[in-house]
Amino acid sequence: MKIYLVRHGESQSNYDKKQGNNYFCGQLDVPLTEKGTRDAQFLQSYFDKHHVQQIYLSDLQRTRQTYNA
After folding, report:
1. Is residue 6 helix, strand or coil?
2. Is the dihedral of CA 59, 35, 43, 4 positive or negative?
């Protein structure tokens, strides 16, 4: 059995932090950036070649967007 741990794509709070606007995101429901969406689409193309039996994700927007890319 293989287990893949995947983090969501770049979120707006990740981007803000890179720009010097530090704040704790935690459970804030922030969306993906355009880069995060592109990265998630690339990830989807990777997993299209692998058989995945089960997926678990949080209910936050950024994780759902990553999953649905």
Report:
1. coil
2. negative
62: CB partners within 8 A, 6+ apart: 8, 9, 11, 29, 30, 31, 32, 36
- Residues 6 or more apart in contact with residue 23 via CB below 8 angstroms: 13, 16, 17
Buried b (16+ CB within 10 A) or exposed e, 10-25: bbbbbbeeeeeeeeee
Q: What is the pTM of this model?
A: 0.74
- In three-state secondary structure terms, 11 is strand
Q: Residues of the chain whose pLDDT is less than 70?
A: 15, 17-18, 22-26
